[in-house]
């Protein structure tokens, strides 16, 4: 957590984790295809584990029985925190006065000890609260402490075989970190972790590099991201000056055909246990049922059969083939909102749980109760917490520069 050296590598690794150019998935999270890498030899892991597991269906069983609807659900809204005392109000308001110096995150050394305090101002408690869960997994926000876990996957040749990497420019990194990991309308990135690490079998390392081997399923196991693509004519859906910020609605996302794209990877010693399959299903649900994507896509490279199977199993149908600078053709798969709803919420109207509600203009966490911390100078900036207010006030180009005093 506190290590300094390697900070750039983490940023680099994080960037690559989400630069939108790779796909790698647990090779037997589907039901077919052979091992991609290490000793798989673990037939038993596929089907033993309890309820969420679907019956193994090599054949077209689903055609007869219909699709098993997704069992994930929208969580209840997080209640508002207790009201603050007048003393607390006074203390916080001292921090948010006109003229206090603003700051940026430095592009490099971003995660070193020197800049940790700054990072912690911007990455507020509620920036970190958005989590998803499945029967066996918790999908949480990526943390600085995930460095080692990220590296083990990123630098592993076995994993790289199924990936495509692009390299982000240095200038992108600062903004990207802030936008992607701290407050984002473009990308939702989750670290995959086990609720009970002992429930997973860590495979023999086989040819996995010694430095990349794991011995248990604790901590960061991989990641899964949903990246939103906005067409040029779409608004940013970010908070705007002078306006109370509200969660974009399904209707707006539909109007501009906002598409989500999934990216994911997992440590090779955990392949073969349906981990990615479980995570994929839940992130797909989140994108459809909570964000309201018009469609969601994934484009595994040719030959990545496990990943292709994951798409088709979840109703993403092949649409077309694309190429890239790496000359590795990708098979584009997609599912629309209507199709997802029909498969997973049979008989139910599409409904928009969060759209249109007021949300904190810093963390934009739409699962929280509507923000009730107000800027004392204007009447349109609202936050879920003082930490979020402070972050927006202290960020260069943030609220302090746009705030119009009430007249
Ligand atoms: Zn907030
Ligand atoms: Zn204001």
Short description, anyone?
Residues 1-65 and 165-178 have low confidence and may be disordered.
Can you tell me about this structure?
Residues 360-403 form the MYND-type domain. InterPro entries: Acyl_CoA_acyltransferase (IPR016181), GNAT_dom (IPR000182), N-acetyltransferase (IPR051531), Znf_MYND (IPR002893). Residues 47-61 have a biased composition (Basic residues). Residues 22-98 are annotated as: Disordered. Keywords: Metal-binding, Zinc, Zinc-finger. It is built from 13 helices and ten strands. The strands form two sheets. Strands 1-2-3-4-5-6-8-7 form an eight-stranded mixed sheet, with helices on both faces. Helix 1 crosses helix 5 (147-154). Residues 1-65 and 165-178 have low confidence and may be disordered. The N and C termini lie far apart (46 Å). It has a domain at 7-33 and 85-226 and 258-339: 3-Layer(aba) Sandwich (Aminopeptidase). The chain is of the alpha+beta class and 407 residues long. Bound molecules: zinc ion (ZN) (2 copies). Residues 375, 377-378, 381, 399, 403 line the site of one zinc ion.
């Amino acid at each position: 957590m506190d290590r300094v050296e390697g900070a750039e590598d983490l940023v680099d690794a994080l960037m690559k984790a989400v630069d939108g150019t790779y796909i790698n998935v647990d090779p037997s999270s589907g039901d077919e295809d052979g091992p991609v890498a290490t000793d798989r030899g673990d037939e038993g892991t596929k089907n033993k584990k309890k309820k969420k597991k679907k019956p193994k269906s090599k054949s077209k069983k689903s055609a007869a029985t219909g699709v098993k609807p997704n069992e994930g659900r929208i969580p209840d809204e997080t209640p508002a925190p207790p009201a603050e005392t007048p003393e607390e109000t006074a203390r916080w308001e001292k921090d948010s006065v006109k003229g206090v110096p603003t700051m940026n995150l430095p592009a490099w050394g971003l995660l070193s000890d020197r800049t940790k305090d700054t990072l912690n101002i911007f990455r507020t408690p509620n920036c970190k609260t958005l989590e998803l869960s499945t029967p066996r997994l918790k999908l949480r926000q990526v943390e600085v402490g995930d460095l080692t876990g990220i590296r083990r996957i990123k630098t592993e040749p076995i994993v790289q075989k199924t990936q495509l990497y692009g390299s982000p420019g240095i200038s992108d990194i600062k903004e990207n970190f802030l936008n992607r990991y701290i407050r984002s309308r473009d990308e939702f990135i989750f670290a995959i972790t086990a609720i009970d690490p002992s429930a997973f079998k860590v495979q023999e390392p086989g040819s996995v590099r010694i430095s990349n081997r794991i011995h248990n399923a604790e901590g960061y196991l991989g990641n899964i991201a949903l990246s939103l693509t906005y067409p040029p004519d779409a608004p940013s859906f970010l908070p705007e000056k002078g306006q109370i910020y509200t969660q974009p609605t399904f209707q707006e996302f539909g109007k501009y055909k906002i598409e989500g794209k999934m990216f994911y990877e997992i440590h090779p010693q955990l392949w073969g246990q349906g981990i990615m399959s479980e995570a994929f299903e839940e992130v797909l649900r989140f994108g459809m049922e909570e964000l309201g994507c018009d469609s969601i896509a994934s484009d595994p490279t040719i030959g990545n059969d496990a990943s292709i199977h994951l798409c088709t199993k979840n109703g993403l149908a092949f649409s077309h083939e694309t190429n890239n600078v790496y000359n590795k053709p990708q098979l584009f798969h997609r599912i629309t909102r209507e199709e997802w709803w029909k498969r997973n919420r049979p008989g139910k109207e599409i409904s928009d749980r969060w759209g249109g509600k007021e949300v904190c203009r810093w963390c934009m966490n739409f699962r929280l109760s509507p923000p009730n911390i107000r800027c004392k100078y204007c009447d349109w900036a609202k936050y879920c917490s003082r930490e979020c207010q402070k972050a927006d006030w202290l960020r260069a180009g943030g609220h302090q520069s746009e705030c119009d005093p009430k007249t």
